[in-house]
TrEMBL record:
It holds the Pfam family FAD_binding_3. It comes from Thalictrum thalictroides (Rue-anemone). PANTHER family: FAD/NAD(P)-BINDING OXIDOREDUCTASE FAMILY PROTEIN, OS04G0423100 PROTEIN. This is Monooxygenase. Keywords: Monooxygenase, Oxidoreductase. Residues 52-120 form the FAD-binding domain.
């Protein structure tokens, strides 16, 4: 779906919310067509987390810069908070032990976060892929919980 007209976007959204309570479809129906746009969510493979360093000297990335993910698990903000806690813990422990801070704190942070971030990126994308698909049998395990 590239360059869809606002009318086509509106029709597509209404098809997707057909099973929702009427209040939802009414909100969609009364949307200002001038504000409707379509941008597909992209999956960015998490290989960079394993193949490259996400820090250099005293600089690192965190949050969406480290682990961009689709919103399907609603974990982007939580992951950013986890980043902050893990990074602070690594810096704090290093400072408590040595009285100084160097790049080894960032290295420890990156090493600890890469596995969890890769899993969340992948699972979020897969969850959205299944939920947005038309196949009911694929959706069933996600709706049983």
């Amino acid at each position: 779906m590239t360059r869809k007209s606002p009318e086509l976007i509106l029709m597509s959204i209404l098809e997707r919310v057909a099973d929702f309570p009427p209040v939802v479809s009414n909100i969609v129906r009364h949307s200002d067509l001038a504000t409707l746009t379509f941008a597909a969510l992209k999956f960015r493979v998490p290989w960079d987390l394993f193949l490259n360093d996400v820090y250099k000297d005293y600089i690192t990335v965190a949050g969406d810069a480290m682990h961009p993910m689709t919103p399907d698990l609603a974990q982007g903000g939580c992951s950013s908070l986890e980043d902050a806690i893990v990074l602070a813990r690594h810096i704090g422990i290093l400072f408590a032990l040595t009285g100084k801070i160097d790049s080894s704190a960032l290295k420890g942070y990156a090493k600890e976060r890469r596995g969890r971030a890769a899993i969340l990126i992948t699972m979020s994308y897969l969850s959205g892929w299944v939920e947005q698909g038309r196949s009911a049998w694929l959706k069933l395990p996600f709706r049983l919980g």
